[in-house]
Please model this.
Amino acid sequence: MNHDDDLTASHWDDILSPSTHTSYNAASSTYLDPEFNGFQDLSLGDPDNTTTHHDDTEPESSEEDSHQAPSAHHEVQESSYAVDSVTESPNYNHSSAYDTARSELEQMHELKKEERAKQKSKLMDELASNDDFDHQLEQSVMAATPGDNFDSLFNDAKSPIKFDLSADVKSKNGKSKQFKRPRKFSSQKNAKNLKSTPAKENENLGPLGSTDNKSTDNLSMKSANAKEELVKESEAPLYDLSKDAQREQQARTPAAIAAIKAHNGEHDPSKPKNHLEITVGDPMKVGDITNAHIVYRITTKNKNLEPSTFPQQTEPFIVTRRYKDFRWIYHQLQNNHMGRIIPPPPSKQTYIGRFNESFIENRRLSLEKMLSKTSSIPDLSNDPDFIMFLTSEDFANESKERERISGSGASLQNNDMLDNPADTSSANNGFMSSIFSISNKPQEPEEFFDTKKHYIEALESNLQNFYSAIELIINQRIDIVNIIEQITVAIQELTDLEISKKTSDTLAAFNEVQIKLKDNLDRVNLQDHLTLGFTIEEYLRIIGSIKYVFDQRLTIYESYQNNLSDLNKKKTSLTKYKSRNQVDKISQLNFEIDKLQTKTDSFEKRFKTISDTIKQELENFELEKIDDFRNSVEIFIESSIESQKESIELWETFYERQSLSSY
Amino acid sequence: MASAIPYDPNEFEDNNPFAEPEVHHVTPAVQPGPQVSDEPIPEEPHSQRSTTPDQQGKLTEEELHKLLPERFSSKYKLKIALINIEKNKPGNPILKFNAEVQNLPRYRQAKYKEIRRTYQEIVKFNKYLTVSNLECFVPQIPSVQTSYPTGGEEETKQLMILWQEWFDRITRNPIIIRDEEFVYFLENDFGYSVINSNRKVSIASGLVRKTLKQLAVPYDAYEELVEFRPLIKAAYLSCQKLEKLLEKNSKMEKQHAASIGDLSQKLANLSQVEFIHPGMKNMWEKLSKIKLIEADLILIQSYNEMGTLGDGLRIFVEDFYQVKEALTNRHLIMRELVQAQQQTKIKHLHANKMKSKSALDPIKVDEALRSLEFATKAEESLTLQVKRISGEMIFEKDEVLQHTELKFHKLLKNYTLNRVDHHRKILKHLENIRLDIRIVDDKGGLSRLNRENLSNLKHNLLQSQSASGDSWSSRTFRSLSEEQDLKQKKEQEKNEAAETEGKESEIDNVVDAKNAAHLLGVATF
Model:
């Protein structure tokens, strides 16, 4: 346990050091924060777990495991749960497998500690390979990537399809039951689409291209990892937990997502996950003229009857929040979950028109969507700040308190990304920032992020164009509707003149058609606005969130680089001193180097973590984007089709009724 | 002249000078024939005595026969068939037409072929007709400009129809075809200019007209016409308003089409960015294509809308304006009549005064009587003119109303057909890309309605407009196809008619032995 102690010590040293308060945020994003009552049993349970592991008899530990696995590691479980649930007795399987693996694992940990210090990705692989339970799969993995480390599994996209197939075949042999669901998905059209794309594309931008092999890999990794976390947690809290979170996200690749989604329907109450039903309604204007604002009533109902992280109450929670509060929770979540793409609130409106009815309705809808999206992400829905936001009666004070504790400064945070996503685009920032900041911007270490960044920016500008075009069309349609309204009035006048009885009749019928068409156009217009327009606008805001995440990552990278250069400087001076044999300075320097080393290491880890998180998040983003846009385009097309049908019907009826064919 | 005064001195004592004298005296009829002039020439008293004019505004049949002989004979006919529109200077094309004359005097030929008149010449002719035929609602020739793109096929087609319609309306009017100017219009070999250009507007124009319009409308005995003018005026105004609104709408729609085209461009750009997922790329591309088509269709629709409804309304506006002005002219003439009546009254009083004087100056008496007679005659002629105008207008009012009704229905029909066509096309294109959106990924979109196991993505993707009718309604009737059927039928009938005609003429022409014998046989016996 020597290594172990060193590692944890260095971590806590790092965390408590005032210079890097952001690291604390990172910690708070994990499950270790003792503040969060929801996780207290977790932090208590972990040491308990480790202490008992060594001495306990087999049946006891198996019991404990089966009990703790779901409760303490619900995040992971939830993703692996889908897999578990397919097998007939998941807990038993796990625990028994775990037990058999235990003794071996104990020994392996000694070795692992050293390797972990070198590279965490390598460790991952080792862990997986040492799992007896999964040995069949392990072989398959090893066969697929002989003597390779874990990273290669992810980044080796040069032959994604080939790999996919091999993994698939292996899993078939090994645990066909477990992979039932995922395979069903991966073998369908998506895969077909992906295969049809040139391999080069896959190589460039991984998430979708290499989705399938990853998903299968992740699933295999996951089941092994799920058990090992228990051990790891006690040994290397920060590392392990971040790994945990990361793994959880890895698991949320398409197959897993689908599995989760499928699972949500038949929710198991024993799960600690929150299943929230959130509605935002009743916008009300409050306050006097100087501080008038709108408050929204948020009604939350937890469908999970035995929540561990959510205050229990049979009645739904009803709280009132104003727009500012939504921004607060957004920023708070951003800080709590580094690298996560947080569903953003709608942008701030100019002072004028704040109380416009349609604007308020639009905002209400956006806010509701934001909350329900947030709650659909398990990590976020269990976030104590989020729960506080939904349930607290004394939000003003509690939010301040939490902000103080986490040191996030959420209420003061810069809102550029939210308020004018248009202006933050590269085109606008480009010139000035290129002059001032290009020199101190560190070189992007991964090509992946460079391409992604370009992609996101291109997407943003295109979506913006799309949005403005749609908006223009919508406005024009409103004008047309107005003109048609005037036309109907004029036709009515002409009808009332009754130039001849028959003409008047026909004109009246004509007018009726016009009025109906006008209503039709109005309706379609509103629908387009609410589907396509709304979706694009939402995605523009999400892109703002993504950019924020990129910035977060870069900030961490910068501090990592700074620390690294400091460390190197110190090291060179150390060698200098060593050569001169200045003993007093050497010890001083050694101490400093040690400190810096741990700091640098932690930054490196955090950087890796956030990078991986972002990768996962981007993948999810792509998938959700496809889903959302496809759905809204489908609604858009279908509603257009229906409106065309209605128009045809109206005109045909008019033609027939007025027997125009005789003229 | 003075000696011929038939005035009975007793009459003067009656103190009601114009109750009877006209009856005794002259009944000048407006000269029939092409010589319709604003200054009616009183003829010799007709042997036939006219009945008392009905002050209730009802003209008896007999009176009408006398006042409007043109209306009661179908002897005279003029037919003009527009053959072609030749290109000339912009805004002044040459109209080529054939004319056929039946029984009309002064024409040298019965048929005129390929008369060529420029549009401007016809406009002048039209103006002349308006001035010289005060009793008619002379239709206005439709503008050379249409809402269709200039010089396009659609425009030519539209102009052919509209101008032919104008010719038909002009030649259908029995009074207008007898206008002597028509002879010149048809017979001039090279070009045409108004020959009777010295015939000036007899009624007030310009400022005077405007001022007179402000005065109260004189008493009108003809009820139909009393109501007609306000109706026409209101119709004129609201048609004008409607036409302006339609134009605005069409402008908006053109902009709308442009921005949809723009959207299509934006979507194409977006599809370039979405290279990660082929399904999405495909979806955006398809959507972009559809939008481009839609933009084109909307543009076409905006042209069609103006071409049918807009142009039709503009012609209505012009026609209604002309009708309104003609009715105003009638009012002005009626006012003249009132003045003339007053004149007669004054003259009569003057003559009476003369008579009561002890010493009679024969010259003065002569003069007084002569002026009285003149005033009476003028009044007489005006009365007849008003009667003739009123009678004719009552006829033409019905014609105008009928024409309006027909035209309105035609416009709405064309408009409706265009709209149906437009929407059907868009619908077809929209339905074409539904599958492209569903196959973006394996989830199959919303159409799946959560049916996880539904493997067939192509359910309910059938085109809703099949040959057997529209899927969304039970109707089997299709306006467009019906229209086509009608056209085909007409063509067929025409062909058949032509064929039978051809056969008949063939039979007529072929003189074979049998035929000849038959003919000869008939002839000999």
Q: What stands out?
A: The mean pLDDT of chain A is 66.
